[in-house]
Amino acid sequence: MPNVLAAPDKFRGTATAPEVAAAVAAAAREAGWTCDEVPVADGGEGILDAMGGLAKHTRVQGPLGEVVDAEWRLKDRTAVIETARAAGLDLVGGAEWNDPLRASTAGVGQLVMAAAAAGAKRIVVGVGGSATTDGGQGCLESLEPRARLSGIELVVACDVTTTFLEAASVFAPQKGASAAQVELLRRRLDRLAQLYLETYGVDVRDLPGSGAAGGLAGGLAAVGFELVPGFDLVADALDLASRVESADLVVTGEGFVDEQSFAGKVVGGVTEMAAEAGVPVLVVAGEVFAGLPAGLADGAAKVEMVSLVEEFGRERAFAETSSCVTEAVVRRLRAGPG
Questions:
Q1: What is d(CA 142, CA 166) in angstroms, rounded to the nearest whole number?
Q2: CA 293 to CA 260: how far, in whole Å?
Q3: Which residue, among 107, 202, 218, has the nearest Cα to 168 in the 3D structure?
Q4: Cα(196)–Cα(184) distance, integer angstroms
């Protein structure tokens, strides 16, 4: 019986990665295939679902000062923290209701300290989906006294390569910042970079990934966190490479596929991994805004992309994402492996 590996990212706003993987599994059962469900993340939202572990909850300061009940995970003394749970844009109701100049990452630091107090020997902070462009200043203030982090491996799982000073222009407009506010935030990041250099001896300005979560990654790097590609970290934890090799088809996807999807994101990482293993890939997306990059479009890799909006219409694709995924995948699986 042929086997499909379901390794999707979330479809933001419509379906979680586990829900999409379950939809692929439903298609596999209908088509007579087996399915290995492996929800994946790249360091942003969804990293808790991907990494697993015992669910913990800590009440922390939200992005605009409100108290939020933030979930994190603990497994084998490794704590996994999702920035969006403590400083997420969704927590304030989206960009329209955000205060981009005031939004703080303080709650993320509080989660780190809670994980340390719980006995974690490794702390992974996944960045992405934040309401903030505070350069990590709020978070670092919550990490005092930092002696409590002594002896703990500290890691940031990045989903972008954006540098510290670029964070304002690249991300702040998505968080509700006007053009004038973007310039103010850029200047604040510039001052913070100088402060971090003077205080911690670390220059975060050109560090790849330091702009993630509005510069939170850079702030954490200044105090000793290692910045790593989030997809690689999650893939290693899930032993994804060997699971790809045992599949006859890999199905991945996300809500919107564009050029960034193939630059450190789940879709690109999974597709490249499958191409190297010689396993065909089906990319299912809510919408597709870009074709395959040259390395995957040259015919050497067997990659097919499906747009749910194109196949089922926008209304149904967004309202019934999981059932659309199942239908789209069933059609492909009935064609057989390869």
A1: 24
A2: 10
A3: 218
A4: 18
Strand order in the sheet with 303-307: 34-37, 3-6, 249-257, 281-288, 303-307
Task: Spell out a b/e string for 89-111, using b for 16 or more CB atoms within 10 Å of the CB, else e.
Answer: bebbeeeeebbbeebbbbbbbbb
Q: In what order do the strands lie in the sheet with 78-82?
A: 54-61, 67-75, 78-82, 122-126, 153-158, 226-229
In degrees and rounded to multiples of 5, residue 281 shows phi and psi of -130, 140
Complete domains list, the chain, with CATH: 3-40+239-333 (3.40.50.10350), 47-231 (3.90.1510.10)
Residues in the chain: 338
Please, what sign has the CA dihedral across residues 7, 321, 310, 12? negative
What are the helix (H) ranges across 207-277?
212-222, 230-237, 240-245, 266-277
Stretch 28-54: mean pLDDT? 95
CA–CA dist 84, 97 (Å, integer): 16
Q: Is residue 61 within a helix (H) or strand (E), and if so which, with residue range?
A: strand 54-61
Phi, psi dihedrals of residue 216, rounded to the nearest 5°: -55, -40
Task: Please give the model's pTM, rounded to 2 decimal places.
Answer: 0.92
- Give 270-314 pLDDT, tens digit per residue: 999 999 999 999 999 999 987 777 666 665 568 999 999 999 999
